[in-house]
Amino acid sequence: MGTETISELVRAANTLVLFKTERPLNDVQKCILEQVLQGKKLKDIQVTGYSDSTVQRVFCPKLWELLSDATGHKVRINTVNLILEKIQTQSSCSTSNQVEMTSTEQPPVPFPIPIKQLRHNLPAASCTNFIGREEEIARLLELLSTRHAAHLVSVDGTGGVGKTTLVVEAAYRCLHASYNNEAFLGVPTFDVIIFTSAKRYYLTPFGFLPSLAPRKTLLDIFQQIARVLGLEITGVSFEEQLDLIKDALSCQRTLLIVDNLETVENQQDVLAFLYELPPTVKAVITTREQIVFVPVRLTSMPEEDGLCLIRHEAKEKGVSLNTQDSQALYKMTGGIPVAISYAIGQLANGYPIQEVLGGVSKSTGDVARFCFETSVKPLEGQTAHKLLMALALFPIPALQDALVQVAAPDTENNTINSDLARLRGLSLVRQENNRYSILPLTREYAMCELNARPDFEAEARERWIGWYLSFSQRFAQQDAKEWQGEFDGLEEWQNLQAVIEWCMVKGRYTEMLQFWQNIEAYTHIMGRRESRLQYWDDRITWTAWLIKAAEQRGDWAVAAKVMVDRAWTLTSMGKQKQLEEAWELFTKAWELRHHQEPLFVLSLAKDIGVLYIQQQRYEEAETWLSQAIELFEHIQLDENQRLRQLTEIRYYQGEIIFKNQNYDQALTIFQQALEHAQLLDWRRAIYCIQNWLAEIAIKQGRHNEAEILLTEGLRVAEANQDKSRTAFCQRSLSNLAKAQNNLPQASDWAIKALENFETLGMLPEAEETQTLLQELDSDPP
């Protein structure tokens, strides 16, 4: 469609709308209509100054509704062209047959009408494109509309989070709607928009700029209102000023913005004034302190929006950033817009990325001072300050009990609750249920505050260690080879990691050993419930440190025990290099066996046998298991210990025999192991053994028996959230389906098993299952 034709259709639409509503199409509507007539799809329509989602979700639907009303036809993006052309054609054909209209019948065409003049003193927008915050700005505009009863709205959040930017953006949208009589689009309209700010300085990439005329008092605010309204209040008493301003505001719809309330003097007087304003006024305040009015609460930008802002700022300032640097910048700034803008500006000024990242997080730097100094300084020496500093020790949200015990264990509950509320009110901390958290930038600042007070830090660190030692004690009696009825602690794992790693850095051997003894079983269990890659990587790091520390101290009993634990972990991981290191550790531990009790030596011989099974060296494995049996016969054990050792030895002997394809003998050995496990009621062992019995049944053609064993085993494994056992059952079910020539079902089970093995980081098992899948794919139907 040609440009001239598009212009004619837009004019026709404008005339219809004008006749129907007595208002012409505005510039935004014309822009959208022109793009639609050019053939653009909805997702490609753009209007300068508005986000794509606003255009698509607000402006376009309102335009279709307006055109439907004006034309009498159901208008949509894919029908507007046809409807306008049809109406234009009908109009042309009927013109020659119509009698001339009288002046009263002729539709008025006053376009272009004079633009409505509004009084406002809005500052220049701080950004060319408003990015993110769509939910927040939609809520703010809704609160400003006549549909909502609230006349006093607060926008709160920590320093630099974008409160002023959000409010100014909303005000400009209201201003645009007011100019063009667009109330029907859902954007509030006003006769006057007044902006007053108590901000003392602005943060720019080249440092702080002072505000030349901050409105710090109620009288300052009065003067600003009077100036915009054209009132003369000089030399008039306070009471008369108040009456004059209220009378003037009551005659017109007004948007009044009070920016940076926390730096206003006599805040209560200002709030009282705002509270008593006539209903024609909508008042918005921005503040770092949470105030009990109708709030719009800002936190850091989500990663997607934060990265979008970084890309936009970089493009605007001519900065080239790769994906890695962008993500590092988002992580360091924590999604705080002022920090992002400052950092990009620094890069534009020629500073290297690493220096900029360091400067952003520096407690004495411009960003930290701008965001936190005015909020934190008044707290110094108080319990609230201790709570904030202590919270920096927790990488993920801290339990209130943990935070209080670390920061101020002897403080009364009323004081604690009051100070936590104060920190929330200052937007320095966030609360969710019984946990407290802070933004990354806040943590950096709080950590520097903590480091600057070494006496308090030393005390807090000791209490931090003590609390998590006590917390981890609950896991000390867990059995790594059994299912746990009640299981918790996962939510504290990253906080626990932080304490342990600090103990390692500081050489705290005693505490490190206590932690290890408490969570050794826990990490094994989580390796089969969640991820070996996550939990066992930590095991590898911690055991390496403990072995070295124990050897340096000549603590050979501990060294041998940790060597065995590390070697068992590496054996379970199963890669060649890991198995080689496991052998070296088992060899060292065997040399140190005289420092241990006989039961340790028996278990060590059995573990070495398992290592050889992993290496498929079955003769050597059987030799070590035979040695374990010989040791077993010469030591005193209680009945439970005796049955447990026999269960494990028979289990691994049965595995060797099965892999040598002697299924009848393997059946006998596994049945012995099952009897021992049942006497102990060792449930996980029972179902592990039954899995092998099912594999034997598959080999011997007893498919119904195998299906019963595996179906029950899978149900119990899933009920106990044991992904490792679940994956083994699924793989065995794949073997069963394959033996029954049901290849599609065999593939389905193998795919499920593979997914679980990969999630857990069980790489050798995943590779074996991948091979099984390839065999299934290559088998003829």
Note the main attributes of this structure:
mainly alpha, Rossmann fold, six-stranded parallel β-sheet, three-stranded antiparallel β-sheet, 63% helix
The portion of residues forming beta strands comes to: 5-15%
CATH homologous superfamily designation of one domain: P-loop containing nucleotide triphosphate hydrolases
The coarse silhouette is globular
Annotation, overall tally of beta strands: 11
The biggest beta sheet reads: 6 strands, parallel
Task: Briefly note the CATH topology name of one domain.
Answer: Rossmann fold
Given the helix and strand composition, which structural class is it? mainly alpha
Q: Tell me the helix content.
A: 55-70%
CATH architecture of one domain: 3-Layer(aba) Sandwich
The strands making up the biggest β-sheet line up spatially as 1-3-6-7-2-8
Number of helices: 33
The whole-angstrom Rg is 37 Å
Beginning-to-end CA distance, first to last residue? 57 Å
Mean pLDDT: 86
The CATH first-level class of one domain comes to Alpha Beta
* Unreliable stretches: 94-116
Keywords: TPR repeat
Organism: Dulcicalothrix desertica PCC 7102
InterPro entries: AAA_16, HTH_VMAP-M9, P-loop_NTPase, TPR-like_helical_dom_sf, TPR_rpt
Pfam families: AAA_16, HTH_VMAP-M9, TPR_12, TPR_8
Q: Please, could you describe this protein's structure?
A:
With 781 residues, the protein is mostly helical. Among the domains are: 3-95, no CATH class; 119-297, P-loop containing nucleotide triphosphate hydrolases (Rossmann fold); 303-361; 373-452, Winged helix-like DNA-binding domain superfamily/Winged helix DNA-binding domain (Arc Repressor Mutant, subunit A), CATH 1.10.10.10. It has 33 helices and 11 strands. The strands form 3 sheets. Strands 1-3-6-7-2-8 form a 6-stranded parallel sheet, sandwiched between helices. Strands 9-11-10 form a 3-stranded antiparallel sheet. Helix 27 (639-659) packs antiparallel against helix 28 and helix 31 (723-739) runs antiparallel to helix 32 (743-760). The longest helix has 22 residues, at 532-553. The two termini are 57 Å apart. TPR repeats lie at residues 647-680. Residues 129-280 form the Orc1-like AAA ATPase domain. Pfam families: AAA_16, HTH_VMAP-M9, TPR_12, TPR_8.
